[in-house]
Amino acid sequence: MIPGITILPGDCLASMRTLPDCSVDAVVTDPPYGQTSLPWDRFVYGWMAEIGRILKPTGSVWVFGTLRMFTQHWREFEGWTLAQDIVWEKHNGSSLRSDRFRRVHEQAAQFYRGEWGPVYKGMVVTMDAAKRTLSRRTGARHQHLHGAETGTSYASEDGGPRIQRSVIYARSEHGRAVHPTQKPTAIIEPLILNACPPGGVVLDPFAGSGTTGGCAVRLGRRAILCEGNQDYLSVMERRISGIVSETSDLFARAAE
Ligand SMILES: C[S@@+](CC[C@H](N)C(=O)[O-])C[C@H]1O[C@@H](n2cnc3c(N)ncnc32)[C@H](O)[C@@H]1O
C-alpha cells in the first residue's frame, strides 16, 4: 500500500461506477486504442461518459491516442472540447514498415466540458532551455515566469524558466519497462502539473504499470488507478515505489 494511491482492480467501467460524482480533479490516461494484437488492446466504449460524471467542473482529461484512434472513435469524445495537444518525441521508432514514415512520436490531447474559464490550468515550465540559449546572450531575454510550479529553486542562467514546449522529448522505456506500452515519467509529469492542482486527485482508468500514479504522488497529488490485468497489477506497487523514490524529472532537468 502506497500513501496517496488507491488501486481499483478489475474492469474500469465497473470501478469508476463506485466513485462519487465530481470527486476527481483530473484524468491522465493512456487507454487501449484497439490497434494492436495485444490481448488487452480492445477499445472500451463509454469510459469518457463515466468520466463526465466523476470529474469536477474544473477538471480536464489528458488522453494519449493516435489520430486514427481519435477519428475512428470520435463519438466517445462527443460533448467534450479539445483544448490542446502535445507530442511526445521518442529517441527511437516503432515501425518497421517501408510504406510509412518511421514513427518516432506519440500524441496526447486534453479535453474539457463547458466553459474553459473555470478549468484548472497549472503553468508548466522547463529549465532545460538554458543550454540552448546561453550561446546567444545578445538575443531576447525571456521573462521570468511567476507562479509557475517548477518544483525547484534553480533558475536558468539567462533569466528563468520557460513555458513547456508542446513537443516534449523523452527516451522511451524500451528495454527497461515492466509494461509493453509503459510511458516515461518525463511525459506524464507535465500533464499532471497542467491539469491537477496540488493535493488534488488524478484518475487513470487504464493504469498499466501505474506511471500516472507514481508521478502524481511524487508531485504532491493523489491518484486512483484502475487496471484490469493481473500481470500489471502485480508489478504496479513496485513500479510506483520506484518512481516515488526517484527525483522528479523536473528536478533532474533543472539540475542538468
Ligand atoms: C496502454 S496501457 C497503459 C500503460 C500505462 N500508461 C503505463 O505507463 O504503464 C492500457 C492498460 O489498460 C488496461 N485495460 C484495458 N482495458 C481495461 C478495462 N476495461 N479496465 C481496466 N483496465 C483496462 C490494460 O490491461 C493496459 O494495462
From TrEMBL:
Comp. bias regions, Basic residues: 136-145
Keyword NADP among record annotations: no
Region (Disordered): 136-157
Its EC number(s): 2.1.1.-
An example molecular function term from Gene Ontology annotations: site-specific DNA-methyltransferase (adenine-specific) activity
Residues annotated as domain DNA methylase N-4/N-6: 24-236
Pfam families per the UniProt record, alphabetical: N6_N4_Mtase
Top EC class for this record: transferase
Family indicated by similarity: Belongs to the N(4)/N(6)-methyltransferase family.
Protein name, per record: Methyltransferase
Organism: Cereibacter sphaeroides (Rhodobacter sphaeroides)
